[in-house]
Amino acid sequence: MHCPRFTDFLIEEGVRDKITVIASGGIRTAHDVAKIIALGADGVCTGTADLVRLECIRCHNCESGRGCARGIATTDAELMNLIDLEWGTQRIINLFLAWRKELVRILKRLGMKSIRELVGRTDCLVHLDYMGKQASNS
Questions:
Q1: pLDDT above 60 (res 3)
Q2: Domain residue limits at 71
């Protein structure tokens, strides 16, 4: 199975196996990753989740003046010292290890052994508004 519009277009054009589709935006959990992969992406790019894990307060000052008041996104030497490199590194590692653990759990529930098996499997997705209707139609 595959995503009916975007992936079909890429297949029809003969380029789906020649490109890598990376999706980004709004990825905050392992479940978001699984949904995006099932919609046809080969991988994801995160940003906000990583920053929040480093205690970003989302004040939107990243690119203004001195930069991030928490020292996360800045080139200011004084502000950079606000984040301990080892502490930050371990928090990001913990985030992705937790996501990996949850993705493995999701794949097992779907009877899959690899995330690659999930690429384009829109049949594994259901809109929550329609879940009850599908169950009653079965």
A1: no
A2: 6-130
Buried b (16+ CB within 10 A) or exposed e, 90-109: eeeeebeeebeeebeebbee
Partners of 45 in beta bridges: 24
Residue 137, domain member (yes or no) = no
Q: Which residue, among 87, 100, 97, 99, has the nearest Cα to 54 in the 3D structure?
A: 87
More confident residue, 79 or 133: 79
Handedness of CA 108, 113, 115, 117 (dihedral sign): negative
Q: Give the single-character DSSP code of 25.
A: S
pLDDT digits (tens, 9 = 90+) for 23-61: 999 999 999 999 999 999 999 999 889 999 999 988 888
Q: Which two tokens stand for residue 54?
A: 């480093």
The sign one gets for the Cα dihedral 119, 30, 60, 63 is: negative
Cα–Cα distance measured from residue 59 to residue 68, given in angstroms and rounded to the nearest whole number: 8
Number of domains into which the chain is organized: 1
**Quick one: how far is CA 59 from the chain centroid?**
22
